[in-house]
TrEMBL record:
SMART domains: FN3. Residues 81-176 form the Fibronectin type-III domain. It comes from marine sediment metagenome. This is Fibronectin type-III domain-containing protein. Pfam families: fn3.
Length: 274
C-alpha cells in the first residue's frame, strides 16, 4: 500500500487529482503542510509528484487553483537486518556463510564484513565483500590458524544500510590437535574447555580426580574438524553429584587414524573452588 491509497479525488480540467488535505484559512502570510508522494525517489529516477492548491471563499462556490508544482520524497528507511547468520568450515581453507534474506522490495544486496574480534565495528577497511545478491558467501584461501568473525548488512538501491547481524566465528583448519586451558580457572559453578581438531576424528575428553579416578566424560564420540570447539563442565560427577573443592584433570585423547596418522593425548589441570 502507498500513503495516497484510498484518498478522495477531484477533477480539475481533464485531470484527476487526489485531495491530500484541507487547511482552514487564517489570514496567514505562509501556510505549510507535509503531504505524501506516490513513491520515493530511487535508483530509477526522482519519481516526481505534482501538487496544486485550491482556494474557495466562504461566501462563494467559486474555486480557484494554483499552477502545479513538483516535488519528490527521499527514501531514508533502512532495510531489514538479515537473520540467522551462520558459518560452517567446508574445507581446509574455506568457510561458508549463510543467512536468511531481507524481505524488502527495494533490496539491492548484502555486504559482508570480516574482523578480528566478536564486537568489531564495520569500516571500509573490514568490508570484505561489497555486494552480493546471494544469501551465502564463501571465504576461501584461509590459512591454518586464521581466526575471523563475520557480520552481514543489507543495502537498498538508495544506499540505506541495515543494522549488522551479530558476529559469527569462522577459521581455517588448525594445524594440530590441541586442548586449551580451561576458563575460568579456578572456577566455582562451571568452566569451559576449548579444543582444536585438524580433521574429523573420534575424541574423548574425560575428567579425573587426583587419584586418577574417572569423574565424568565430557565428550566421547566422533567430532568434526575445526577450531575452538568447546565443552563445559559444571563441577559435577557423571551421576550428578556436586564434587568437592580440589584439583582435577581433563584429558583429551585422539586415537591414531587408519591411515597411520599419530594419535594425541593431553592433560590440563583445573582447580574447583566451592
Amino acid at each position: 500500500d502507498t500513503p495516497t491509497q484510498g484518498l478522495p479525488t477531484v477533477l480539475i480540467g481533464d485531470t484527476e487529482w487526489m485531495l491530500l488535505d484541507t487547511v482552514h484559512a487564517r489570514s496567514d502570510i505562509l501556510y505549510h503542510r507535509e503531504v505524501p508522494t506516490f513513491v520515493d525517489s530511487n535508483h530509477t529516477g526522482l519519481n516526481l509528484s505534482y501538487f496544486r492548491i485550491s482556494a474557495q471563499p466562504t461566501d462563494s462556490l467559486l474555486t480557484s487553483f494554483s499552477v502545479s508544482a513538483s516535488g519528490y520524497s527521499v527514501d531514508n528507511l533502512v532495510p531489514t537486518t538479515p537473520t540467522n547468520l551462520s558459518s560452517v568450515i567446508v574445507g581446509a581453507d574455506s568457510v561458508r556463510l549463510t543467512w536468511e534474506p531481507s524481505p524488502d522490495s527495494d533490496l539491492q544486496g548484502y555486504r559482508v564484513y570480516r574482523g578480528q574480534s566478536q564486537n568489531f565495528l564495520p569500516t571500509q577497511a573490514n568490508l570484505y565483500h561489497a555486494a552480493t545478491t546471494d544469501t551465502f558467501f564463501h571465504d576461501t584461501g584461509l590459512q591454518p590458524g586464521d581466526r575471523f568473525y563475520y557480520r552481514v548488512a543489507a543495502i537498498d538501491y538508495n544506499g540505506n544500510y541495515s543494522d549488522l547481524t551479530d558476529a559469527v566465528f569462522g577459521s581455517g583448519l588448525p594445524e594440530a590437535f590441541a586442548l586449551k586451558q580451561n576458563y575460568p580457572n579456578p572456577f566455582n559453578l562451571s568452566t569451559t574447555l576449548r579444543f582444536d581438531l585438524p580433521r574429523l576424528t573420534r575424541v574423548s575428553i574425560i575428567v579425573y580426580d587426583l587419584r586418577g579416578r574417572e569423574v565424568v566424560r565430557l565428550f566421547n564420540g566422533l567430532h568434526p574438524s575445526g577450531c575452538c570447539h568447546q565443552v563445559e563442565w559444571d563441577g559435577q560427577s557423571a551421576d550428578g553429584r556436586e564434587l568437592p573443592s580440589g584439583v582435577y584433570f581433563a584429558r583429551m585423547v585422539i586415537p591414531p587414524s587408519e591411515g597411520g596418522t599419530p594419535g594425541f593425548a593431553h592433560n590440563i589441570k583445573m582447580l574447583l573452588l566451592r
